[in-house]
Design a protein that fits this description.
Oligomer: single chain
Helix content: 25-40%
Distance between the termini: 74 Å
Number of helices: 12
Largest sheet: 7 strands, mixed
Strand content: 15-25%
Number of domains: 2
Shape: globular
CATH superfamily of the largest domain: Type I PLP-dependent aspartate aminotransferase-like (Major domain)
CATH architecture of the largest domain: 3-Layer(aba) Sandwich
Mean pLDDT: 95
Low-confidence stretches: none
Radius of gyration: 22 Å
Strand order of the largest sheet: 2-8-7-6-5-3-4
Order of helices and strands: EHHEHEHEHEHEHEEHHHEEHEEEH
CATH class of the largest domain: Alpha Beta
Number of strands: 13
């Protein structure tokens, strides 16, 4: 049978519907023209670097670069299972948490379905959903905080996944364990609740819960974590998820082979065992997160409570003192922070917690800017 094409119809490969409507993810800026080594506080990286043990493990793999990694990441699987007291067969590993969000959407969503996320939720969720052909519904976030009732209002019979970052990026706000439990209790049992814990280690509020116990006893809860933040291995892209065996086994069927490379796995195992480095990283945040919040507030900025390794500051809507102008002004001083126009927060900047000198440099630079 011969297909007849219109004479003016170009014959070329075409992406499936919706792909070209996706807005690609853009990370925090890392360069400033004319400044060789800017202070980068734009990507929530660990300012202390990574564990010396992790760095040594990376170097030790240099003689094995001709070898494929273990496709099941069994050394890392055993280390994570032991550290968090989890069942190893319920774990899945990814090239960062982002790959896990995508795997979930690819396995459970099809055209006509939808996922629900917070109004200011992490951009990777919507990209994963739209790549699978699903629509994205945004639940309003009063005071930049996920509202359980607003999330539930967006759920319907075609909802397949609810993505919740806890603590949230880019806001730093969080939900209590009781709120997460309420959300789960009221979700239909066929909807997967994904709890993104990229910043879980930084959350020390008494009401916070990382969701692992909920995932253990539930058939529709998946908890994700990353080695990029507290462990400082952002360059190596290692993430993992824990959930019901039926879900992780389905994801394994389409997971790319060897998606966690050998140096990344070795470094992650070493990082997990270096509790001193983790404690040093947490001590830095404990000391300087409240200080930076207080100092920025003293400059007249609205600073939102954070349980992550960054703070979010809202700037006035006044010519000469807007967030966009503040970002440019800080860049002129060699300081990179994250503008949030792509999140719908054009009036705010996200600032990673740095060392003492870094945090003081931000405040000292913003003082004249806010008082001009």
């Amino acid at each position: 049978m011969t297909t007849v094409l219109a004479s003016n119809a170009p014959l070329r490969p075409r992406p499936k519907p919706g792909i070209l409507d996706i807005v690609a993810y853009v990370g925090g800026k890392s360069k400033i023209d004319g400044i060789a080594h800017p202070l980068k506080l734009s990507s929530n990286e660990n300012i202390l670097g990574c564990s010396p043990s992790a760095a040594a493990a990376f170097v030790e793999t240099a003689s094995q670069l001709n070898l494929y990694p273990d496709g099941r990441s069994n050394l890392l699987r055993a280390a994570v299972a032991q550290h968090f007291k989890l069942e190893p067969d319920r774990l899945i590993f990814g090239c960062g948490s982002d790959e896990i969000f995508t795997l979930l959407a690819q396995v459970y969503c099809e055209p006509g379905d939808n996922v629900v996320q917070g109004q200011y939720g992490f951009l990777a969720y919507r990209i994963a959903a739209r790549g699978a052909g699903a629509a994205v519904r945004f639940a309003r976030e009063p005071n930049l905080r996920v509202d359980v009732n607003a999330v539930l209002d967006e759920v319907d019979e075609r909802t397949r996944i609810v993505y919740i970052a806890n603590p949230a990026n880019p806001t730093g706000t969080w939900l209590s364990g009781a709120e997460i439990q309420t959300l789960h209790d009221r979700l239909p049992p066929n909807v997967i609740l994904v709890l993104d814990g990229a910043y879980a280690e930084f959350a020390e509020d008494d009401a916070y819960d990382d969701g692992i116990a909920l995932a253990r006893r539930s058939e529709n809860v998946v908890v994700t974590r990353t080695f990029s933040k507290i462990h400082g291995l952002a360059a190596l892209r290692v993430g993992w998820a824990y959930g019901p065996l039926a879900i992780t086994e389905a994801m394994e069927l389409i997971r790319a082979p060897f998606n966690v490379n050998l140096p990344a796995e070795a470094s992650a195992v070493a990082a997990l065992g270096d509790e001193d480095f983790v404690e040093q990283s947490l001590a830095l945040i404990r000391q300087w997160r409240p200080w930076l919040s207080q100092q920025l507030g003293g400059l007249g900025l609205e600073v939102f409570p954070s349980q992550a390794n960054f703070v979010l500051a809202r700037f006035p809507d006044a010519p000469g003192r807007t967030a966009r102008e503040a970002e440019a002004y800080l860049a002129s001083k060699g300081i990179l922070v994250r503008g949030l126009s792509n999140y719908g927060l054009s009036d705010s900047l996200r600032i990673t917690i740095g060392l003492e000198a870094h945090n003081r440099a931000v405040v000292e630079a913003l003082g004249p800017f806010m008082n001009q």
